[in-house]
Structures are given as C-alpha cells and as structure tokens.
Amino acid sequence: MVIPGEQPFYASIAGSQPDADVCRILVVDDDASLRRTLPLVLAREGRSFDECASIAEAIAALEHKHFDLILLDYRLPDATGLDLLDWLTSHEREEAVIVISGEDAIDAAIGALRGGADDYVRKPYHVAQLQRAVDSTLHKTTLERANRTMSQRLRASERLHRFLVESSPDMIFTLDPEGRFSYINPRVRQMLGYERAALMRRPFSTLVVAEDVDRINSLMFARGNTPGESFNIELRLRRNRETLVEGGSESATVSLTGIPMPGSGGRTSNGLYGVARDISERKRAEEIITFQAYHDQLTRLPNRVLFKDRLELAIAQAQRRTGALAVMFIDVDRFKLVNDTFGHAEGDALLRGIAARLSTTLRRGDTLARLGGDEFTVLLPDINHPEDAEIIARKILDALAPPFRLDHGDFRATVSIGISLFPRDGDTAEDLTRHADIAMYQVKRSGKNAFRFFDPELNTHYRERIALENDLRLALERSEFELYYQPQVSMKAARVVGMEALLRWNHPAHGRIGPATFIPVAEEMGLIGDISHWVLEEACAQLARWRADGFEDLRMSLNLSPHDFSRTDIVDMVTECVSRNQLPPAQVELEITESMMMQDTAGVATKVKAMREAGLSVAIDDFGTGYSALAYLQKFPVSTLKIDRSFVRDLDGPSTNPIISAITGIARGFGLHLIAEGVEHAEQAETLRILGCDVMQGYLFARPGTAAQATGWLEAVPQPDLLRRPA
C-alpha cells in the first residue's frame, strides 16, 4: 500500500543502488597511468571501474550513473576535488569519496573531510594502504546503506500502520493501567460524536452505559488477565448528546475486543489495547428479524410460535404452584364476507381494529396472539375459577358490540369463543389449544357470537369426525360406495316407471352408512365432486344395462349436491356421460333442492337451462318445504316436482291437504311431472291418486335395494303389491 502523499521507501533504495550485486567505482584523476593502475590493484569480484580525467567528465558521468565509491584526485586540470564534493552535497548524492592528494598541507585534508569525503590518502601511498582505505570505506558504505534501508522501512511501516489505525472503520484505543484513554483514533467522532482530545486521560467507563459498567470492569481489571490474551464482549457506549441528531439513539452497541498490554517483565498488564466495532445496525436488524419471527406483521401481536412458548411456560408455572389457567380460541364470524365484499385492505383494517379492542379487555400478564387469518388466541394465566374466564369472554363480546368504521361503511363484527381450562381440559399446550378450538367450532354451529367451555363429549365427536374423514378419503379407492335403487311406480300403469339412485357407503368397520351422515362431510372436505362423478357414471351404466335388458322406457333419477353446480363443467360432465352410455337424455333426471333454486348460487339457473336444452330432465326435490314461488318455476325450466314426504306423512284425506292440492295444481298449470315421496300406506296412495298424483315412491312399494333386487322388481308381474317389502 502506498500512503497518499508519500514516496515508497523502496523507490529511494532503487534509485541509489540500481544493481546491488555490482560495486561501481569511479576513478577521477588526470594521470592516465594511475587511472589504468588503480583498477588493477583494487580489483575484486563484483567490482567495476569507470574513469574520468577532469571534474567536468566526472559530473557528466554522475549525471547518468550512480556509483558506490569515487577515488578523487585533489588537484585536477579544471577544478579541485572540493568542487566535486560540493556538487555531490548540493545534489544529495550518497556516493562515498576517498580523496587522493599529494598536498602536504593539513588544510587540504581538513577541507576534504569537511566537504564530505570519507577518507583522505596522501601521495605517495602504499598499495596496501589504499586497498585498506577502499575496503573500509565500502564496508562502512554497506552498513550505512543497510541502516538507511532499515530506517526507511521502519518509517514506511509506521506510516502504514498509522494510516490503517487512523482510517479504521472501528474505534481503536489504548488505556493506561488505570483504565484511562492514552490513545484513540478519529473514528470515535463518527461513532459517538466526541472529539479525541476531549476523551484523552478520561476513564473508559465514562463512555459505558451504566448497566454494562460492571461487566466491562470485571474483564478489564481482572487479576487473572494475561497480556496478549484477548476477551470479547458486547456493550453499549454513550453517544455525545450535544451532537446527537434528532431521533437518534443515545447509545451505540459495540463488539469490543480487548487485549491486555504487557508491562515490565512481560507478565503484568500495562493497560489495554481495544478495538470497538459498531454493531448497532446489525443488532437492530437482528431485533427486527426476531420480532418478525415471533409476531404477526399485520397486528403486531405474538404469533403462533410465541403464543405456544408462553403457554408452555405458563403451564410449567401453574404445575409448580398447583394453579390453573385458561386458553381462549377466538374466530371472527363472517369475516370472509368483508374480504369478498370490500377487499382485503378493508379486511386487514378490520382485523387491526378487532385486535385493538381485544387487547383492551385483557389483564396485565395475559397474552393475545393472532394465529393467522381471522383466528386469535388468548392465554389467561392465574385463573382461580372458570367464572374468571367467563367474565373476560363477556367483556370481549361487549367490546366488539359497537360497529367498526370502515371506508365503505360501518360493520358489526362478532366472534365465536371456545375456552379450555388447565388442568381440567389438558396439560399440554397442544391439547388446550385444540380443545378450545373444538369448543369454538361448536359455538359456530350453534349460532355464533357467543362463548362456550370445552366439553369432553365434543372431543369424542371430533375424534369420530376425523376418523370418518380419513376413511372417506379412501372410500372411492377401496370401492366401498354402492348405489341402491328405489322404484317410482305409476299407479295408473301399475308398473315401475323409474328408479331413484341412492348412495350408500359400505364401511369396513361400521357397516352400511347412509348419505345423511357422510355427504355433508364430503362437501366440507371438497370430495363431493369426485363422489358425484362416480354416482353419475354408475347410475348411467346401470340404466344402460336395464335398457339392454328391454326396459327401454325406464327413467333414472339421481341427486346432485349444490356444490356440484359450482363446477363450470357440470353440464358437459353430465351430457358426456349420458352420450357415452347411449342414453336418451330425457330418461336421466337430475334432482336439485328447492333451497338451491332459491339461492341461485353460481348461476344455477343458467346451468339448469343448459341441461334442459340438452334434453335432460330436472326435478325439484322436496318441493314445498321452502319458500316456493311461481317466479322461480318460470326462471328454472324444470320438468318434475317431487312432493316432500313431510306432506305425505300427515295425509288424512283430500279435503284436509290444501298444500298438496296446490302443488298438484301448480304441476298441471306448468305442465310438469309430479312424484310423491315417502308413501308408506295404501290410504296415502289412494288420496294422492284422487288429488291427481300418479307416480309415487316409498316403503309401500319397496325399500331401497341393490341393483339385483331392482332388476327383480322390473321383471315382476305389474302389480304394485308385488313390489312391497317388509319394513
């Protein structure tokens, strides 16, 4: 490294000694014989000689070349040797000079030596004398050059190290044995805002934040400190308040490396050498990362990880004190409505508002956390009675009662709260949170905007539900589903005119399970689409087999889930299956519920219309149980109405059944087919016939049976009584 403004020490060395292996000697004498003789008597390995006859020639040679030694005659034709010595001095040359003179006066020798000559040899001289003078002078020159080189290296090294210390991004300092600053580099001004001069001789401890003083003093003045053995510590140093910018931190966090300096004898400390690196930004980044790892970014509340950590700690403390605690699981009701209607920005604003109100209801020491989405949890340590948790739950419901003001208007938020208690409902964080979650879902099912404590019976129910879900996922793969069929009988023709396909699940452990048990679960799990597709394929294939057996006018009725109509390809799926099995579309009847017709979700009317245009039959199941309106029958081009079993069950006579009379009148008015469900007695069948309903199904004719049983009914003598099976 070259220090700015400085010449490298090796540059001067290179200039003074271009070739260190050759010793160059310049002979300056006007005696030609002497100039020829001297190189012979002074010859040594590694020496080379040049010669000049005058001062002018010598100066010309010196301007182009450096020499190690000049043998200079005192008297020359154009000047004296003293003139050459003056030239050498004025040009700061380093050549050694031995003056050879025949002058007897002592003044000549004194003048030469004062002029810079290294030696003075008087003529006549002995050859050995001259050789000794040359050897001695060259040896001296070598030593001086080595000394100059070492000095230059030391100065350069000092300049380099001073530059490194003074320019270091770290604060570098030394302390005397009493812990006072004896040196400090300029970095202290940028780091702490102090001038170096103001800190000299001041104790280092005056810069240390009070809470860290004892720690650093214990390291700096420990008796066992060995010189050269370093220590490392993180501590905070005070910033100069007079130079502190507005909003700046009053302290800087540094990583300090201290090395005790050796004193006399090398075994005792003679102060301290220290390097302090500012790690304030790194510490802030670590704090941010840590906060983000354990807190929710939207509400700034603890997240799932931190909540679990605090809950586990609270459980351990409660076990030691034989105390109790409560866990609340809070879910915001209808939150999806806000996101879907007003957007996620409004949803985020609502969550922040709810978090703020929840915080106001809690005690000091309680923990409110956001698990994600619209779910919050609360840890209530030191609960003496369940009533304490109940009081807080009521405070939460009351706090959320006022509406939240959003950009698009006010919104009244409610929550469902599940509560579990330690140790009654579990002794681990997982069990308490899970049981509170189960209790919360029970509140959801019971109407929302309330709270409930966990009941062990709920856990049994949820365990059974989970087991059912797991088995249901494998039911299709294991071919555990089966279609049963219930005949639809025409009283006028006294024969079976249709079959309704009914799904059953042959569970390997629980036997046959009806659709009312597992269909809602399949809809929640998102499996209903695959199940409905299987039902469609199986029912169409069975109808194709019956048609091949000669029952060509038989109609197949099957149910679709409301979730099926959210599929964009539902119409194509049905028509493709019907076409592939070579079935007349009108003989495949799809049943939809009256409630689905009323809601018209996902464009149900459009899809029903497409099915009717494709020639398929569409029936409204359980007609009359909802808020039926003639306008919906005009909007939905259905082909069949099915009278619900609840009306048939209470049937006593034609005069006492205005609803059925109205339904039959609607069917006639719109030109729709009519089917009555749940017919169990001959009197009900007769009354329905009188009221104008010809096609019926129910236990009076047959319970749902397998495909083989249904084939037997089709092949039976056309009398309804022959289809009847024991109840």
UniProtKB/TrEMBL annotation:
CDD domains reported for this sequence: EAL (cd01948), GGDEF (cd01949), PAS (cd00130), REC (cd00156)
| Protein keywords | Phosphoprotein
Which residues belong to any copy of the GGDEF domain? 323-456
Q: Which residues form the PAS domain?
A: 157-220
One short Pfam name that applies is Response_reg
The PAC domain, residue ranges? 231-291
Per UniProt, residues of the Response regulatory domain are: 24-138
Residues with the modification 4-aspartylphosphate, per the entry, are: 73
GO: which molecular function terms?
catalytic activity
Q: Which residues form the EAL domain?
A: 465-718
What GO biological process terms are annotated to this protein in UniProt?
A: phosphorelay signal transduction system; regulation of DNA-templated transcription
Q: What name does the UniProt record give this protein?
A: Two-component system response regulator
Species per Swiss-Prot/TrEMBL record:
Parazoarcus communis
Organism lineage string: Bacteria, Pseudomonadati, Pseudomonadota, Betaproteobacteria, Rhodocyclales
